Amino acid sequence: MRAVLMAGGSGTRLRPLTCDLPKPMVPILNRPIAEHIINLLKRHRITEVIATLHYLPDVMRDYFSDGSDFGVQMTYAVEEDQPLGTAGCVKNIADLLDSTFLVISGDSITDFDLNAAIEFHQKKQSKATLILTRVPNPIEFGVVITDTQGRIRRFLEKPSSSEIFSDTVNTGTYILEPEVLDYLPAMTECDFSKDLFPLLLDKGEPMYGYIASGYWCDVGHLEAYREAQYDALHRKVKLDFAYLERSPGIWIGQNTYIDPNAHIEAPVIIGDNCRIGPRAIVEAGTVIGDNVTIGADANLKRPIVWNGAIIGEEAHLRACTIGRGARVDRRANVLEGAVVGSLSSVGEEANVAPSVRVWPSKQIESGATLNINLIWGQTAQRNLFGQRGVSGLANIDITPEFAVKLGAAYGSTLKPGATVAISRDQRGISRMVSRSLIAGLMSVGVHIQNLEATAIPITRAVIPTLNVAGGIHLRLHPDRADHILIEFVDSKGINISKSQEKKIESAYFKEDLRRAQIHEIGNMAYPSQVMDTYSTKFEQHLNVQAIHHSNSKVVIDYVYAVSGAILPQLLAKFGCDAVVLNASLNQTALAGPDRETLLVQLGHVVEALKASFGVQVSANGEQMILVDDTGMSIRGEMLTALMVETILTSHPRGTVVVPIHASSAVEQIARRHDGKVIRTKANPTALMEASQTYPNVVLGGSGEMGFIFPQLHPGFDAMFCIAKLIEMLTIQERRFSQIRTELPRVYHKTGTVRCPWTVKGALMRHLVETHPTENLELVDGVKICNYPHHDNWVLVLPDAGEPLVHIFANSNDRQWVDETLREYRTRVQGFIDAEQGLEEIK
To answer: What predicted TM-score, i.e. pTM, was given to this entire model?
Structure first.
């Protein structure tokens, strides 16, 4: 059997280690990852290896040559012009693959039993067998579900946190029959997980998953790289050591001298031709390459030191990585998670702070303290984007420095000369951060349309008229008063896609940011008539005559966070009386209890003024809570149901889009009006996209997130919602108190359980495996429907941003809801406790 070793990647998330080295040639235990893979193949009697190369191909060819020194026969296929993707590069060598063959990734460490997987493939007469494994946190991998026979039923490439439905993942190792390549076009970039496997699934070709036992680590980022080294040292994975084991757990190469007064703790590995000086301390977990010099009194605690490095006297290294030929001088400190690139030097008594990355061939002066990456900016968490954009503590996580780099990263994903619209709420912190974002965007040659302080619904409505590539809106986070939220939208005003988020993250973390020349620096303009544009659209989609004749009086509470408060002006234009409360800008955002106090106050004012209704507007014009004509507040699921009832009464046979966890009252109301319900993932982007995609959508959203009127713009808009409600109440000659009593009686409760990130995938898989397939919906989380009672269901939904799992129970029967919620809380908590117990035993 032949093996295809996919070795084309540049390892961008391992930079600065891979600037001059392809990822498969990164050393583990002082030998390239690719060499460990070839040793694995050889142990399973696979000795014909074809390596597909793209990034720095000569490095691998020079090292392995024809493979004879390594006991295999090596041939190479180089993607000369452009990368063809994981499947495209294999299609490119289809003429060399005339029988069953194995594809293995060049950037993972594993000791899987390949023969067992091949036997499984042959026994099942499979066309494509994916070797799978189970991991605690599957968010960075392709998630797979198989049936009891091992046949693949569903998979999802790199899910978001709320999309995880299993902890069984694709390891990038496949056993394939040559005919599956016939499905792929020649000389075209394509991917196994995104293109070929979904096609095979669609065509009904036999495709199986073999769940392998043993060790597997995708060496995809710096933390994983260090973990793989430590695991190999502690023999958690079966790898061949390149040196003799001189004493238990201590491997030392040839011609290495260790001073008798040096202290070495097992396990460590020390390469050929090394010199370790007197009183040097080399603690357990340290990996030292070939030709390395360690000075007297140096202290090494679990660093990974590549070939040819020089470590000076009294230098301190702490769980860091020192690249090839790098130099760390006397009394310098390189701390946890830091990386010093090849041929760089750290001067005497200099300090490299934790997690700082120094690119190759850089120099840190003596005595300097480096707490930012040497090329650009400072280190941040691995994932920038959460459920609703980029958020963090104001002026702690979201600082001017961070915002400049984020703006430059976003701008680097756009074409030079592109234009971006930017807006914000009225807070001083938002003004400061927006200016930094603008600076970053302009620095990479992007022009700015500055909308300044305005409500986000106005931004979404105006963006399609400005001929821009996209937009950014900054505001205080709707749910966390000490956080800033930065949202990115596309040219239509819809939140950007996950793939676009990944591009921005990649540009940010790679720090490969475009730099414009002086004459290319972006310009900034302030578009006029922004409010007029919104007002015109606002009027076009309302029955203005109905509002004129309504004689409505509405009380609007802005909760001391007003932004773009043009609604009273618009309503006055239509002859409505708008009474405004709390419209000044309070620099301290109100907490939940304070807002509740204002809501009670709003109810009293509505009653006293005999107003049609009241509304508390929040989230920079996106969200609202209604107060009916009797002073009672309407929010959450009741508000969702009321909005659906009101809209479908005016637009029968219309379609409404709601999140997966919305109450079944929505379907019951839709049946009254011959309407249709579309349920989406529980995130704003999914609701916006669905509202624009499906035909005849008259309403999208929920009481929690806000409501979308897709004919106006693609986002949530509490201002338009208020005007629309006045129109519909007038035409329908109803009051909210009356509509509220006519809503279906559905019991809908939720509970929350703390769940570690590492258990979420296993929990979702457990739920899928322990319920009949026909009762499951996997739109988002795991929804278990109690057929034939369509309104009886329970949803277990992982939180996208916190180590939590939410449980929703829904039924027309209160007792069923209470019992089911209690049952699933117990079931989920029990599974979490069991998994954590197993981890402690391990």
So the answer is: 0.70
